Amino acid sequence: xxxxELDQRARDVLDKNDHGGYTVPREKxxxxxxxxxxxxxxxxxxTYNEARAWQELETLFSGQWDNGMVPHIVFHREKTxxxxxxxxxxxxxxxxxxxxxxxxNPPIAAHVIRQLLEEAKDKDLAREKAQSLFPKVFxxxxxxxxxxxxQGKGLVVSYHPxxxxxxxxHDWRQLLAEVPLDKLEPYERKDIEFVPADERPNQKEYxxxxxxxxxxxxxDYDDDYLYEHSPFKVADTTVNFILARADRDLLWVANQLGKxxxxxxxxxxxxxxxxxxxxxxxLWNKEEESxxxxxxxxxxxxxxxGGTSSxxxxxxxxxxxxxxxxxxxxxxxxxxxxxxxxxxxxDPHHEDYDALRYWKGPVWAIMNYMIYKGLRTSxxxxxxxxxxxxxxxxxxxxxxxxxxxxxNGDPLGGNQFSWTAAMWLYxxxxxxxxxxxxxxxxxxALSAR
Length: 449
Ligand code: GLC
Fold this sequence. Notes:
Layout: H1 3-16, E1 33-34, H2 35-46, H3 50-61, E2 73-74, H4 87-90, E3 92-93, E4 99-100, H5 109-119, H6 123-147, H7 161-164, H8 173-177, H9 203-218, H10 223-229, E5 234-235, H11 237-257, H12 263-280, E6 284-285, E7 290-291, E8 294-295, H13 323-339, H14 365-377, H15 381-398, E9 403-404, E10 411-412, H16 418-428, H17 432-438, H18 440-447
Antiparallel strand pairs: 1-2, 3-4, 5-8, 6-7, 9-10
Bound molecules: alpha-D-glucopyranose (GLC).
């Protein structure tokens, strides 16, 4: 297929999933607006319709709560019963009466706004939109730093695996097993009507997800209450590395828009950035030579949980704090690539690695984009190119799937998936020839399938 044909297919996916101003990740399976999906989808739109890209962010921020939190789902009064938990389970309206979920998502919006502003063809539109979004994004970051780091540790916490975006990662195994299920209300899973059950979280995990939703709902998503009582209280790698990068990108945006106009915000950002940088060091697990989440839940003594997931490599996004660690991570990536397509969401040599099951092994294109971005900005071009080549080859052979099997490249989960198509358009399509020229073997092996 030519690059133009692939681009057209990717645009078709976005247009098909467009519900008029916002994009659903995948019809039926995820039939509402998802937070970090939409941010990354905006990058895809920017390649052919800049106004539509900005609109995607505006509709997302219409779900923002008064306290600054931007929910991980905005329901937009959609009437559909193909997803659980819906509004009745969350019971989490924002002040404008919009039904939303009660948790947030990795804060990638500021990074996206920076990219859109920097690369805009329509600079006037970009400045106008960035001006109107800036105060909202800033309030979101402030919420993270104030409300999710109430003791000023420099690391923000999450109370639900869905907030980290890596729902059933092996990282959460022990924590999810400890979530009390005795008061679990009945619910009906919908996801496995659309995707084979062995590609989705298992039943016990889903029960714990629902019990954590119930806990949040019962205290009206009170951050202080949850900080004291949630059995799931983690400083996650995805969330913290992305926030660290996003703070810098937001600072860049503020400086572009007007140093004087945003002097208070600039001062706040200049305070958060070094504090977070110093604290991220704590996510490093010396024994395993990788970054891993920490549990702040009672009884954990701020211990690391889980093992090495693809989120460890997001450390390159804000920049690794020293060269030794960067080399250890690069060596791991190299080692994984000898036997697997990059980047498995979980250590493919770990005993619980599962090539099919969601965040326990499969490759996710959006993680690859963010890892790539980090590698490039940290000067590790070659490592970045290889994972870009693998991602492009996966899409070319398997379509724009939700995730892919790292052992054999099979597409998994939902097909015609919005953020995967967006990553093709924004990231990989412009590099296709370069990737094929540099990695012909890896490329041909898959695309010949
Ligand atoms: C799954 C993913 C999450 C994503 C959502 C919508 O829950 O784990 O990261 O945002 O689907 O695509």
